[in-house]
């Protein structure tokens, strides 16, 4: 051993949600060691702000953007395989919702009102799609 640093991928044992009213997500890592496997939690999905961790250790102060480096649902897992193919559809839907809102802002206050607005938007999109499908409208094809 020459004390050379070596980066080795660490297996993610599970994705864990912790909290009561608000939630934080963690990867529970299984770190192999000659003394046995150790578990370690790493927060994912949020970037810590100044004051959330000891002075000088927050992601904001260190210039680290956690979401750029950690995937909440790890690649090569069954969940990733089930969710990832629909990501572009979801982003497209979010872009359409944003474009439909006045000034790009939600016009509702509170969780229930926002859920109702989103549900109404989705129902309108689905109704329009169904009507076009039943009419036999030509589908849009990308041009080469």
What does this structure look like?
By secondary structure, the chain is of the alpha+beta class. The chain has five helices and three strands. It is elongated and about 70 Å long.
Biggest sheet descriptor: 3 strands, antiparallel
Strand content: 15-25%
Radius of gyration: 22 Å
Helix content: 25-40%
Helix and strand sequence: EEEHHHHH
- Let me know the number of strands: 3
The backbone outline, from C-alpha atoms, is elongated
Mean pLDDT: 80
Q: How many helical elements?
A: 5
Summarize the structure.
With 144 residues, the protein is of the alpha+beta class.
Key features?
single chain; 144 residues; alpha+beta; three-stranded antiparallel beta sheet; 3 strands
Blueprint of the fold:
Blueprint: E1 12-18, E2 24-31, E3 38-44, H1 59-62, H2 66-69, H3 78-83, H4 87-100, H5 111-135
